[in-house]
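Narrative of accomplishments. A recurring question from our advisory board has been how the design workflow behaves on a single, concrete structure rather than in aggregate. To address it, we present the structure tokens for one chain from the evaluation set, followed by the sequence designed for it. No filtering or post-editing was applied between the two.
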């Protein structure tokens, strides 16, 4: 644990820090408003992170990767118990980060390589597949009059899309979803040792699955993203090694669905809670792309993100030494009234919604942003068209306990048939 001076931090800083509940992200917005106002940066001893809540500061940190590196984004908050580390070591686990925690020049090299395969054209070409999948998925429960929009729609759909891109068979969806959740809870939650052991066994399976996928593509390159990478490698271009390719698959298999599942689940909940907003989309589907941006702003599925200080820096008047950890509250920055008028209000026609920080910024800007936008637009288009009369059932919303990946476990709805 590093002990740091609070420098010129305001006197409310400690009070705000004491009220911070980092693993409970169900409804922290009133707390965020207070933090932005009274202590825009404070130190959380529970996490050993400095917590930053204002738009302007979060944006500046994203834009300066030489001072604020992403090397800690995939690290757990606490050291792993020896028994957990043993499970990982004995299982040959070597999956750490495909891109998000990599640093230049490695990051620059790998990102340039993936950018060639993950082109806007390749993403756009997925639209008919996504639309057909959304139609079939909604069609399967359309006549029922009630549904859980998470388990019956948003849970599987993004996984089936990224799997299509990565050439993974549909029957592996449940396993990979479970393994990816283990990764999230291990790196962004606070699980006890017994629970960590279960997650560690899942991580071993997950990593070995990604290695096997790359090995099979090196033998027989198929028409998918890993196949493209394998073809380049087999042609003698070893710019990106086989371990790095497996890491990319490992990264995309988490980043590529968990996040979009949660974005859609948040959107269903929040649009139906503010039903006049839902009705605006039903009446005029041309408003849906703007609504997707507003959902990314209002309820970002990546709720907080991590950075590490590499050069002495001052944030919101507080001096941070080299080695300090920084937690960026994206869910707070996106509602900062200094950037977004009436930031706590949902408005699908907000003109500057696209200035949100839900996908980060700068060299690590989300690789999958065009895909996430496409999937969300198509699903909302199909849902508003097919089930315009959707209403929320009375229910309590629950969220997985972790700092960074936010989406309700269930969204129960009903409609007239
Ligand atoms: C709503 C959905 C999504 C959200 C909210 C989201 C959010 C983010 C955020 C906040 C970052 C970190 C940016 C930074 O550090 O500056 C990121 C990076 C990344 N995302 Fe996404 N993401 C989403 C969907 C996807 C999808 C569908 C993919 C599929 C490939 C993906 C792949 C990645 C990768 C590979 C990175 C690391 C990029 C790098 O370090 O160069 N994401 N995303």
């Amino acid at each position: 644990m590093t002990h740091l001076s609070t420098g010129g931090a305001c006197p409310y800083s400690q009070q705000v820090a004491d009220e911070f509940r980092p693993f409970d992200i169900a409804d922290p917005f009133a707390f965020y408003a207070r933090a932005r106002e009274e202590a825009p940066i404070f130190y959380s001893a529970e996490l050993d992170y400095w917590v930053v809540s204002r738009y302007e500061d979060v944006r500046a940190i994203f834009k300066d990767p030489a001072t604020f590196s992403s090397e800690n984004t995939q690290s757990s908050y606490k050291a792993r118990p020896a028994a957990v580390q043993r499970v990982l070591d004995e299982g040959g686990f070597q999956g750490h980060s495909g891109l998000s925690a990599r640093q230049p020049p490695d990051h620059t090299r790998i990102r340039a390589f993936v950018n060639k395969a993950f082109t806007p054209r390749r993403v756009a070409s997925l639209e008919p597949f996504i639309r057909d999948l959304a139609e079939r998925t909604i069609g399967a429960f359309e006549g029922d009059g009630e549904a859980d929009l998470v388990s019956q729609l948003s849970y599987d759909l993004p996984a089936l899309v990224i799997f299509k891109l990565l050439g993974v068979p549909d029957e592996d969806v449940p396993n990979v979803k479970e393994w990816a959740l283990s990764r999230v809870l291990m790196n962004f939650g606070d699980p006890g040792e017994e629970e960590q052991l279960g997650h560690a066994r899942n991580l071993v399976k997950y990593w070995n699955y990604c290695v096997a996928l790359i090995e099979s593509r090196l033998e027989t390159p198929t028409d998918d993203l890993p196949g493209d990478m394998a073809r380049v490698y087999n042609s003698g271009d070893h710019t990106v090694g086989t371990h790095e390719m497996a890491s990319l698959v490992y990264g995309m298999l988490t980043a590529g669905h968990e996040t979009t599942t949660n974005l859609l689940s948040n959107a269903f909940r929040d649009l139906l809670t503010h039903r006049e907003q839902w009705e605006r989309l039903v009446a005029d589907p041309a408003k849906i792309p703007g609504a997707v941006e507003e959902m990314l702003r209002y309820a970002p599925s990546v709720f907080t993100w991590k950075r590490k200080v590499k050069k002495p820096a001052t944030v919101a008047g507080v001096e941070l030494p080299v080695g300090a950890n920084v937690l960026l509250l994206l869910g707070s920055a996106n509602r900062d009234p200094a950037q977004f008028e009436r930031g706590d209000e949902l408005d699908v026609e907000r003109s500057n919604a696209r200035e949100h920080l839900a996908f980060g910024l700068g060299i690590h800007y989300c690789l999958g942003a065009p895909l996430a936008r496409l999937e969300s637009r198509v699903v909302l288009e199909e849902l508003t068209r097919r089930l315009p009369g959707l209403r929320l059932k009375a229910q309590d919303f629950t969220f997985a306990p972790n700092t960074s990946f936010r989406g309700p476990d269930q969204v129960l709805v009903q409609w007239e048939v």
